[in-house]
Amino acid sequence: MHIPFVTPTLPSYSGPHTVGAFDLELPVESPKDFGTFKVPDGSPALRLQTTLTTLFYSAESTKHADKLDWFPRPLRATAAGYARFAEVGGALRFLTPVVSFLASGGIKIPASISAPLQRPEPLPLIIFSHGLAGTRSMYSQYCGELASRGYVVAAIEHRDGSAPSTFVYPSADTGEAPREMQYTRWSELEWPGKDEKPESYLPLRREQLVMRVAEVRETLAVIRRLNAGEGPELEKLNRRQNMHGSPAGVDWSRWEGAVDLQNVAMTGHSFGGATTIEAFRAGDMQFTRAIALDPWVDPVDAPAPDGPQIRKPLLIINSEPFTKWTEHFEVSRAVSPLPGCSQSADPSTPPSPTSPCSFPASPGAQG
Description:
Blueprint: E1 18-38, E2 44-59, E3 67-69, H1 75-85, H2 90-104, E4 108-113, E5 123-129, H3 140-147, E6 152-157, E7 165-168, E8 179-182, H4 202-227, H5 231-237, E9 259-269, H6 271-282, E10 289-293, E11 314-318, H7 320-324, H8 326-335, E12 342-344
Parallel strand pairs: 1-4, 5-6, 5-9, 9-10, 10-11, 11-12
Antiparallel strand pairs: 1-2, 2-6, 3-4, 7-8
Helix pairs in contact: 1-2, 4-6
């Protein structure tokens, strides 16, 4: 059990493998703006310039290896983003960074930075998408647990304004400062070209969803390059060189051919569950299956007879509140293509390991 102020590292993973991890922020091949919303200075609210991913993977044991930070840096920026998300104002807003530092500033993830990849044979890949106010590290127990059982997990940090705070780093030769994007409130944005401002956040969420799917696509492209032996080049392109969590001393030859690109799954929680559904439904990323955890499907359109269809296993796991949310649950059921692939989170009836909706077995997995 982790006790704030006392234990500096989160609980160890239960799988048979040590877990390694590192961060990669890489420029996308074709930067793109999404949607119609603008920030007050007139620039696009949704700009895809780089992808930021933490890779969790099964690794060889490494003594005295440095561990990843759990609470994203800089602490003050992340704390301020959470205050925006929770709409905390006044004196409490100024106390948020202090409380965040005391409660979680020193916590580490039990994953060794740049530990050597352990690869008995090509490993299955899982892409993970976080929910609103999430980050690439906030679901580390889930992602790291999967990695400890023989998977490579690419945890995306979305740059669509859904994270509490994220920084987009420019190329080092520009001399420019990184661009911070804090949690975006739809009510503070401008929507030029419309007669009236939207009355809810849903139009923004739908546009964010389009960008999130593009980030999934770009992340897969990075993994393909890594698998093709381009690790040294990617390390040079990494916008976070010499930062805590960036790869250092990695034997990139171990990564060549290490990922089974015919065995790729997608998963995510809440808004990330909606991202999972939309990325899976896009049909161009060759996912073999997907698992959506409490997917928040308000921005997701119900499947149309003549629209994109999901024809591979999609497992939707809902907690009790999401199951009892009747209208929401019916949309979830409508997008799940196979009988038995949409169920509540009842621990007495876990998904069978042989179910077509479960993650594919890893070569090195046990338990």
